[in-house]
Amino acid sequence: MPGRRGARSGRGWDASPPRPLRARRGQPTDGPAAGHGQSTEGAAADEAGAGGPRSEAAAPPRDEAELAREICLRQLAVRPRTRAELATALTRRGISEEVAATVLDRYGEVGMIDDAAFARAWVSSRHTGRGLARRALANELRQRGVDREVATEALGELDEATEAETARALVDRKLRTTRGEPDAVFRRLVGMLARKGYPPGVAIGAVKEALAAQSAEAAEFADQLDPDALADAELGDGERDGR
């Protein structure tokens, strides 16, 4: 309707292309609409004649030691690492052995790499959180490149009494959700402890005590078990299987 306010402004999805702006006096525009008759091809030719487009300056090569330090810091930001773990990460990124050794030596001097502290913290954390025994913990430390003497010293802080208490706690917790005949439950629980690295004698003794305290039927079954004989049988099977 003529004269009605709010008519279409033509700026919506169906708007016509905007008309080219006129150049201010003394300022040429980019296209032929400015009246100069110079196309974009002509501008490119002029630029080429003046020496070509300006290229970005090539970034200088990064210092290898600086890159090695950056890799180590990123690794250490996730969790503590052993020297062997960091050395592996540097090798994968192409850092030379000489530069890697220099950087790792320096990080060791300032305490950012400490395999002994790593081993102690690992043993405490994994035993408390996952209930792992010394045998399983020793295997994990070896996989992370911890020296055998350093690992042995850290594992020495986990004594046999603590290991036995943890095994019994694991069995008690598992028994709450385990159902079946006593012999099947027995084998299942012993296998669970074995996977966590407990020796046969410790595993069998913990399960026997837990079953004896569970019910009369389980107690009767547990009384028939000889932990020492079962442990010897388990060790014999392991030797025959090459374990």
Automatic annotation (TrEMBL):
Q: Which UniProt keywords apply?
A: Cytoplasm
> Which HAMAP family does its entry note?
RecX (MF_01114)
Domain RecX second three-helical: residue ranges? 114-155
Coiled-coil portions: none
Keyword Cytoplasm applies: yes
Location relative to the cell? Cytoplasm
Q: What does this protein do?
A: Modulates RecA activity.
Where are stretches of biased composition, namely Acidic residues? Answer: 223-236
- Start and end residues of each RecX third three-helical domain: 163-202
Gene name, please?
A: recX
Protein origin, superkingdom = Bacteria
Q: Where is the RecX first three-helical domain?
A: 68-106
- Protein family (similarity comment): Belongs to the RecX family.
Instruction: Report what the protein is called.
Output: Regulatory protein RecX
Q: What lineage, starting at the top, does this entry show? A: Bacteria, Bacillati, Actinomycetota, Actinomycetes, Micromonosporales
Any single Pfam family the record assigns to this protein: RecX_HTH2
Where is region (Disordered) located? 1-63, 223-243
